[in-house]
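Hello,

I think I submitted the magnesium ion job twice by accident. Can you confirm which output corresponds to this input? Input:
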Amino acid sequence: MGSDTIVAVSTPRGVGGVAVVRLSGPQAREMALRHLSVDALEPRHSHFARFSDGGSLIDEVLAVWFPAPHSYTGEEMVEISCHGSLYVQQAIVQALLDDGARLAEPGEFTMRAFLGGKLNLSQAEAVADLIDAVTPVQHRLAVSQLRGGYARKLNDLRKRLLDLTALLELELDFSQEDVEFADRSQLRQTLCELAAEVERLMASFSLGNTLKRGIPVAIVGRPNAGKSSLLNALLDDDRALVSDIPGTTRDTIEETLTLDGITFRFIDTAGLRSSSDAIEAMGVERSRKAVADAEVVLYVHDATTPWQAPDVDLESKQVIYVNNKSDLSVAASVPSPTVNLSAKTKEGIAQLEAMLVERYQPRLSGDAPLLSNERHYGALLHVAKALAAASRALDEAIPSDLVAVDLRDALYHLGTITGEVSSDELLTNIFSRFCIGK
Ligand SMILES: Nc1nc2c(ncn2[C@@H]2O[C@H](COP(=O)(O)OP(=O)(O)OP(=O)(O)O)[C@@H](O)[C@H]2O)c(=O)[nH]1
Ligand SMILES: [Mg+2]
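Support: Only one job matched these inputs. Its output is below.
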């Protein structure tokens, strides 16, 4: 818990109808009362009052006192809603700084909430994700993590493992007597459950992470197939240059689009052909890389020309074959799944969008929490390794002190997810992602 009292404007920088100044720490109430035209503050009541400094009125405000521990940070807190003028916001903050408050660091309110036991680390990170969320899917991932999500389950399993490890370590003190305090079958059972949960979460990461950042969809094909026209049609915007000269697009162009709440990142690429032009050849290299990095590939074919096998490795990719220029002709024998469309008239675009959404919608509707946090994924990799080593050691009847080392390793990395184990460096890293005032 902070020993000093911190202050910051929690609403975005700029002019708004209303701005909120937050004050947290032992002196919060006294400092606020010094400036407010009320004698006392009732807990969690909104008080209409004048805020003045050195006798001069700054603004009429609404002030709410949250006594510790019933506040966001768990500390004494006061929230002052003032008019959104930059001058007023500044003057209120300055008055409180003059009283001895300190300007809050980025994320410091949330960090105090974590240190005060109001949130675990995974929930604090979810607050940052929630603030950043702009699509329904990002919002859902953040809310599920904020409500506890997988952290709660991992924590329960961690506690069980912790007890068993402690018993195992106790045996070491009685090593002459050959006793077994830790029930081996129970230990195996816990390891098994934990390993299964860790594996499930790790498997969900790729989906969780792509959903959070947007699903990469590469638009590739031969020159002049209509790739840039397709990007423009999807975006409903003249984003990319289009011309009848093959080789128009050289660099990749990326734009995001949210369809039915799911964010896709469409990447228009240079047409695939071997070229003596050095710049175009570099562009084609980028096209191949875009395919390699993509989740979904839209392979665009010009329907007025005969089908030719793609000159790029599409194996292990989800491909949708787009038979473009359907306003001119519809060629046969394009591999499926196919969608016939015209980037020019936009006929068939809706069908393509529906095909994309259908691929992800069902996987989203499940209740199982998805892992979308890279830091957690990194920690789980360590946990999985340590659990595997511990199981092996148990099977091979390796001395319990060595098993205990692996278990401690797993416990440590599990603890970093929810914050039972944390370092200053880790906390600084996480909370510096926040803005000031959060
Ligand atoms: N009639 C018709 N013409 C189209 C359609 N889509 C694209 N075109 C035309 O085909 C030509 C090539 O279109 P682009 O979108 O530049 O093709 P691209 O695949 O991006 O080409 P590169 O960037 O050179 O690889 C342009 O003249 C477009 O107007 C379509 O659906 N119907
Ligand atoms: Mg192009």
